Amino acid sequence: MRRRAAHYAPDGVQKILIGNKADEEHKRQVAREQGLQLAREYGMDFYETSACSNLNIKESFTRLTELVLQAHRKELEGLRGPPRAPTLAGLEEDEQQPLGSEDTPKSCWC
Question: What's the Enzyme Commission number for this chain (predicted)?
């Protein structure tokens, strides 16, 4: 295991520890308990994954995304500004606007 990797990430970077190829138990080089212990030492979540069997793929990416969003929530709220209710005039104006080409930059705060 690369214990040094967690030391090189800048402060504020969200991290999780992932053990891959969980579907190949016979080739395991690191015990699950070792992975859990290392994750605890660094204050990270731990997931064992397998792309072959789709084990914890979605869950690990979802958790990392949640951590990033939590860490940057205030920054994101500042970019969005205060919530505004759409007005009838604004909706009608939007309907009149051409859709544009594929090259037109689009912004969405969904």
Answer: 3.6.5.2
Cβ atoms of 63 and 45 within 8 Å: the answer is yes
pTM over 0.85? The answer is no
CB 16 within 8 A of CB 42: no
- Number of residues that this document lists for the chain: 110
Q: Which two tokens stand for residue 23?
A: 């579907």
* Spatial separation of the C-alpha atoms in residues 86 and 77, rounded to whole Å: 18
Q: Which domains does the chain have, with CATH numbers?
A: 14-79 (3.40.50.300)
Q: What would the pLDDT profile of 41-89 be if each residue is shown by its tens digit? A: 999 999 999 999 999 999 999 999 999 999 888 777 777 766 666 666 6
Higher pLDDT, 59 or 109: 59
Q: What is the pLDDT of residue 32?
A: 94
Task: For residues 47 and 66, give the distance between their C-alpha atoms in angstroms, rounded to a whole number.
Answer: 15
Helices (H) and strands (E) in the chain, counts: 5, 2
State the residue for tokens 């395991």.
28
